[in-house]
Amino acid sequence: MALINVAAREIHGKIVYYGPGLCGKTTNLQYIHGKIPSGSKGDLLSIATETERTLFFDFLPLDLGKVQGFTVRFHLYTVPGQVLYERTRIAVLNGADGVVFVADAQRERLQDNLTSLKELAGNISQSGKRFLDFPLVMQYNKMDLPNALPTPVLDRYLNTIRVPRFEATAFNGHGVFETLRAICKLVTNKL
Amino acid sequence: MLGHFDPHLSHVIIDEETAVSINSVLRQLIRDSQATSGCVLDRAGQIIVWDGPAYDGQRMQLGALIAGTYASTREVARILQEAGFRTLLQEGAREKIFTEAVGDHWLVSLIFGKHTALGLVKVLCNRATMDLQQVLVSAMERQIHRPRLKDAGLDIVANDTIDLIFRNDTEK
């Protein structure tokens, strides 16, 4: 849950990028880190395997500046997407205020997306929160690829609960900040 | 019941009174144990109070890593069917970090050097967790009766700020 530190005049929120392996979660954070001015971000911390797959999490602190005298900070995390890291995903998801579900739009990854989304819903419910009320934004990544499913098809299978969703090509930044902006707003609206 | 509250709460407010109380317990713990620094953080890795000079500029990363390591090691303990997992020790050549759970939602970490006895840290930390838990649970209970920040119009200002920060020139 978000931390509002009245004494330090700070608001902290935790946003987790969730999704199947190789869907582009880390790419989102790398792009954000590359574009945000240095005064508004911390170092991008990545705990990855030798082959640069996320092993534990990526972490990027973002400073949004002051709102009514409070410094607003969002901590962005990614989870490791590979199937075997399910328990690690639960650990990273702990205390999240909002989630960006990054779906891989490629036709052959649809089942992986569905499995990951179902797992996310289960993990949020098991933490005692209502999945349907939880701040969630969906990103359809890799829409530039020729085998990407059309948005209406992705909507039909993945976005049955009709959360805000964005088309993206994370490696060149398309849709990355729209997604981030939407989840930041959802989280602050919950405070 | 102490340490249990509504999981649907979207945020926790640390007011001045709470911060002073946490600071007081933490400072006493650091002084008595002769640790160099310490912090109280939530399980999401967000630091509530930090005391001591160490690692200025890297505290947010340290908080994320301590909470992540604690959560990960707790999962290992769960698989090993080890009930009552509450503490974690990082042993460095120069400094050690001892972390203990405070209730179900927070952690306290102490950073200390070779001149501090681990046994003392464990005993004092364990005592301090009880005081910290009382302070934090009281803060949660007081919060139930507070107006939401949304009611003060914070969400509107925050949304404007978010739009300003993520304006088009950031996206190009």
The structure class of chain B reads alpha+beta
User: What percent of the residues of chain B sit in helical stretches (DSSP H or I)?
Assistant: 40-55%
Total helices of chain B: the number is 5
CATH topology of chain B: Beta-Lactamase
- Assign the structural class of chain A, choosing from mainly alpha, mainly beta, alpha/beta, alpha+beta, or little secondary structure: alpha/beta
**Overall number of domains of chain B:** 1
In the CATH hierarchy, the architecture of chain B is: 2-Layer Sandwich
Looking at CATH, which topology of chain A would you report? Rossmann fold
**How would you name the oligomeric state of the polypeptide chains in this document?**
heterodimer
Query: What proportion of the residues of chain A form beta strands (DSSP E)?
Result: 25-35%
Task: Put the structure in a nutshell.
The complex is a heterodimer of chains A (191) and B (172). Chain A has helices at 25-35, 86-93, 110-126, 151-158, 176-189, and strands at 2-5, 10-18, 45-48, 54-67, 70-78, 98-104, 136-141, 165-167.
List the helices and strands and how they pair.
The complex is a heterodimer of chains A (191) and B (172).
Chain A: E1 2-5, E2 10-18, H1 25-35, E3 45-48, E4 54-67, E5 70-78, H2 86-93, E6 98-104, H3 110-126, E7 136-141, H4 151-158, E8 165-167, H5 176-189
Parallel strand pairs in A: 2-5, 2-6, 6-7, 7-8
Antiparallel strand pairs in A: 1-2, 3-4, 4-5
Chain B: E1 11-14, H1 16-33, E2 37-42, E3 47-51, H2 59-79, E4 87-91, E5 96-102, E6 106-112, H3 118-143, H4 154-165, H5 168-171
Helix pairs in contact in B: 1-3
